[in-house]
Amino acid sequence: MKKFLALFTLIFSLGLVGCSSKAEVKDVPVNDIKDAINNEATLPVQPVADVDAKDFYIFESVKDNIQEGFVLQSMMNVNLQDVFVVKTDNVEKIKSAIDEYKNGDSFKMFADGYGGENNITAAANSILKNKGNYVYFIATNNATDVESKILKVIEK
């Protein structure tokens, strides 16, 4: 019985350690994130438009909730390559604004095939998540690669 109790305690302890080892979020400037992803290897469609998130039209109603952020988009209007990163004090409001954009006509046109199969894939595989107080939206063909670079910068 003692062996069983000791084994149970060990397994339970290991489970707690495993669950508590989730990566924490560093407090970094969003420009560090932008620098990590804004290159041809990560965003192959160049040139890229770089807009302050507070000046981007979809964030007009929530810009007071934005501490800092950026929007990168392909300047070639037939290619979907969106990367938004926002540091915020209200994650849900920012995610809601991005959801409205995703469900709007300009994004849906890419999802429906404007510009070709690559845009359909980028729209279908888009990522909208947050890590701590950073919200990110990625609609590129290599969204998981972009996400891993973002997480590499912000996770401890």
Tell me what the structure shows.
With 156 residues, the chain is α+β, with helices and mostly antiparallel strands. 42% of the residues lie in helices and 21% in strands. A hairpin with a 7-residue loop joins strand 2 and strand 3. Helix 2 runs antiparallel to helix 6. The longest helix has 19 residues. The N and C termini lie far apart (41 Å). The relative contact order is 0.17.
Number of spatially distinct domains: 1
Low-confidence stretches: 17-21
In one word, what is the shape? globular
Q: Tell me about the biggest sheet? A: 5 strands, antiparallel
Count of helical segments?
Answer: 6
Task: Name the strands of the widest sheet in spatial order.
Answer: 1-2-3-5-4
Helix content: 40-55%
State which percent range the strand residues make up: 15-25%
Pfam families: DUF4358 (PF14270)
Organism: Romboutsia hominis
Signal peptide: 1-23
Keywords: Lipoprotein, Signal
Write the layout of secondary structure elements.
Layout: H1 2-20, H2 30-37, E1 48-52, E2 66-74, E3 82-88, H3 91-102, H4 105-111, H5 117-124, E4 127-131, E5 134-139, H6 143-154
Antiparallel strand pairs: 1-2, 2-3, 3-5, 4-5
Features:
42% helix; globular; single chain; alpha+beta; 156 residues
Please provide a brief summary of the model.
With 156 residues, this protein is α+β, with helices and mostly antiparallel strands. Strands 1-2-3-5-4 form a 5-stranded antiparallel β-sheet, sandwiched between helices. It has 6 helices and 5 strands.
